[in-house]
């Protein structure tokens, strides 16, 4: 939404370990991210609609950093696109992820204990003593008709939180539970500059994007239409 909202949107703990921080990214930072994403969208692996094993095609377009995600695994090369090795995950993005997590932890119980308590489904534990070091980013572009069905981010072998940054058009982000795709869930509006972090017991919760509101982007971010979402994650994979 452009300009100041009539009512300031409040920071919220949506579920234990899941927090929403409206307007976290300053507009200049959003612009820089948009520029960087434009470059990554060109290559070495071009942004594309992911094809699912059943033949379905995702409506969002995606490009990855560090590790390439395809349903349902990570690899260094984009074997379902052009076989190229994905772009490096830059150090400045690790720092941005750490800053985001620090803000999220402040909202989330003593010393971020809830957020960082997540044991991985499969493998390494993420403890408060270890520094958050995301090594993959999924960059999703939504046009006005794009959606994302309810799913869990479960290919990572680390219980470290997912840091999600949104730029451009506002969307409805549906944050659910770890058991089913259905209720209970909470619908949150993610606008340009918003941060959402999910870790701890919410790390493997179902979530999705049922709706994007076209025409709500602030052109000052450099995005005249559409929505950009960047999720930073630790894969827990070696090397
Ligand atoms: O676009 C979003 O806000 C969520 C993206 C997402 O869930 C994903 O990339 O796994
Ligand atoms: Fe996801």
UniProtKB/TrEMBL annotation:
One of its GO terms (molecular function) is dioxygenase activity. The keyword Ubl conjugation does not apply. Transmembrane segments: none annotated. SUPFAM superfamilies: Clavaminate synthase-like. It comes from the Bacteria. The keyword Iron applies. Keywords: Dioxygenase, Iron, Metal-binding, Oxidoreductase. Its cofactor is Fe(2+). Residues 133-236 form the Fe2OG dioxygenase domain. InterPro entries: Alkb, AlkB-like, AlkB-like_sf, Oxoglu/Fe-dep_dioxygenase_dom. Pfam families: 2OG-FeII_Oxy_2. This is Alpha-ketoglutarate-dependent dioxygenase AlkB family protein.
């Amino acid at each position: 939404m452009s300009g100041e909202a009539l009512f300031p949107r409040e920071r919220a703990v949506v579920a234990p370990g899941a927090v929403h921080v409206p307007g976290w990214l300053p507009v200049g930072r959003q612009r820089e991210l948009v520029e960087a994403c434009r470059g990554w969208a060109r290559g070495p692996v071009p942004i594309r609609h992911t094809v699912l094993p059943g033949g379905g095609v995702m409506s969002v377009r995606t490009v990855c950093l560090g590790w390439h995600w395809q349903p349902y695994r990570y690899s260094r090369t984009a074997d379902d696109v052009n076989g190229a090795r994905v772009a490096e995950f830059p150090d400045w993005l690790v720092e941005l992820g750490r800053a985001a997590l620090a803000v999220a932890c402040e909202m989330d119980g003593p010393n971020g204990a809830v957020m960082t308590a997540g044991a991985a489904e499969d493998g390494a534990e993420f403890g408060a003593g270890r520094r958050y070091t995301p090594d993959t980013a999924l960059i999703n572009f939504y046009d006005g008709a794009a959606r994302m069905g309810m799913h869990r981010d479960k290919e990572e072998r680390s219980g470290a939180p997912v840091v999600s940054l949104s730029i451009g058009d506002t969307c409805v982000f549906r944050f659910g539970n770890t058991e089913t795709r259905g209720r209970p869930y909470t619908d949150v509006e993610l606008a340009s500059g918003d941060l959402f972090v999910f870790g701890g017991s919410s790390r493997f919760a179902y979530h999705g994007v049922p709706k994007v509101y076209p025409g709500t982007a602030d052109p000052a971010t450099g995005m005249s239409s559409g929505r950009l979402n960047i999720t930073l994650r630790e894969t827990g994979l070696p090397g």
